[in-house]
């Protein structure tokens, strides 16, 4: 059964504000901007950072992801013979220390040793390094294969496990790759697959970035029909967890009444929160400035009241 078929009930369970407009937000927050998950093999934030784990807001029975298994993409470097029967966890720790010390070659060898033995965090770290071009030459297909390894083996993990944030982040990365495909590789654009990846991570793991991307796909009608109501519901879940792109898109939808009942003051609230969370995002700053200029004095005052309530703990989705 395709993931999308299992997710239809979950898509209806989200809360609704009613909100929209599609802009070319990139979407996913950089994992380096959020705190590392607790309970994983120790590493310094300078060596690796983990995506934030938000509590799942829906329940969904896990299922196998509909993606082909791919061969492990390790380069084949060998650790020193002294490594012997080193455990994957110990190899990962050595790799993290090497990366902190600036020895990228040694770090890659250690991470690949651990990744080849199923160490989820090592697979994720390698995927992120190649996807971001961080200290290595960017290689999207190699990154894709590392993320796919995680999806093939860890998609059914409980959302409460320490590795769950990394699994969810890998699914989001795969979804993003499926949106446009990877030039010069077997990975072709597949919007249906992209939506399935986002939907699974959004519903089963409650991942804020996945919820944003899923909401945006519903809004734009990519990978299926356009549905502003579903878009607003997924964006609301993501925005409530502090995802700035979701806050901006949701705020614009509400402010303009685009596909949902207009709530200008609440839309301005979300746009203000998005601007404060991502002040370097020029598009978000411009959207907030435009809405603030168009808003009436009463709407701006009401938005400030909503923001004060939000900051004081009166959050609502």
Describe it.
- There is one protein chain.
- Helices cover 55% and strands 0% of the residues.
- By secondary structure, it is an all-alpha fold.
- The longest helix is centred in the middle third of the chain and has 17 residues, at 164-180.
- The chain is elongated.
Per-chain topology:
Elements: H1 3-12, H2 88-100, H3 104-116, H4 120-132, H5 140-154, H6 164-180, H7 191-203, H8 208-220, H9 228-240, H10 244-256, H11 264-277, H12 282-294, H13 297-311
Helix pairs in contact: 1-7, 2-3, 3-4, 4-5, 4-6, 5-6, 6-7, 7-8, 8-9, 9-10, 10-11, 10-12, 11-12, 11-13
**Strand element count:** 0
Please tell me the overall pLDDT: 80
Structural class by sheet pairing and helices: mainly alpha
Oligomer category: single chain
Global morphology:
elongated
The CATH superfamily name is Tetratricopeptide repeat domain
User: What is the terminal separation in angstroms?
Assistant: 31 Å
Kindly provide the radius of gyration, computed on alpha-carbon positions and rounded to a whole number of angstroms: 20 Å
CATH class category name = Mainly Alpha
Percent of residues in β-strands = under 5%
CATH architecture: Alpha Horseshoe
Order of SSEs: HHHHHHHHHHHHH
């Amino acid at each position: 059964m395709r993931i999308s078929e299992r997710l239809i009930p979950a898509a209806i369970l989200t809360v609704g504000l009613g909100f929209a407009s599609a802009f070319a937000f990139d979407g996913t927050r950089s994992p380096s901007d959020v705190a590392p998950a607790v309970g994983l093999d120790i590493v310094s934030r300078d060596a690796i950072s983990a995506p934030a784990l938000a509590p799942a807001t829906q329940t969904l029975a896990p299922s196998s992801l509909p993606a082909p298994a791919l061969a492990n993409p390790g380069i084949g470097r060998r650790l020193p013979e002294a490594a012997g029967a080193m455990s994957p966890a110990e190899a990962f720790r050595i790799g993290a220390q090497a990366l902190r010390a600036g020895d990228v070659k040694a770090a890659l060898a250690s991470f690949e040793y651990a990744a080849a033995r199923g160490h989820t965090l090592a697979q994720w770290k390698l995927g992120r390094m190649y996807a971001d071009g961080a200290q290595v030459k960017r290689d999207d297909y190699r990154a894709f294969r590392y993320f796919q390894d995680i999806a093939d083996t860890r998609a059914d993990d409980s959302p409460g496990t320490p590795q769950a944030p990394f699994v969810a982040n890998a699914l989001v990365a795969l979804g993003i790759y499926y949106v446009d495909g990877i030039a010069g590789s077997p990975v072709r654009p597949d919007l249906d697959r992209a939506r399935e990846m986002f939907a699974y991570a959004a519903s089963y793991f409650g991942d804020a970035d996945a919820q944003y991307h899923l909401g945006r796909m519903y809004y734009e009608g990519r990978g299926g029909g356009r549905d502003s109501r579903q878009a607003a519901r997924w964006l609301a879940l993501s925005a409530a967890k502090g995802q700035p792109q979701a806050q901006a898109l949701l705020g614009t939808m509400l402010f303009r009444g685009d596909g949902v009942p207009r709530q200008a003051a609440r839309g301005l609230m979300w746009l203000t929160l998005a601007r404060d969370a991502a002040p370097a995002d020029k598009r978000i700053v411009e959207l907030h400035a435009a809405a603030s200029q168009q808003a009436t004095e009463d709407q701006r005052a009401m938005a400030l009241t909503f923001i004060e309530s939000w900051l004081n703990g009166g959050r609502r989705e």
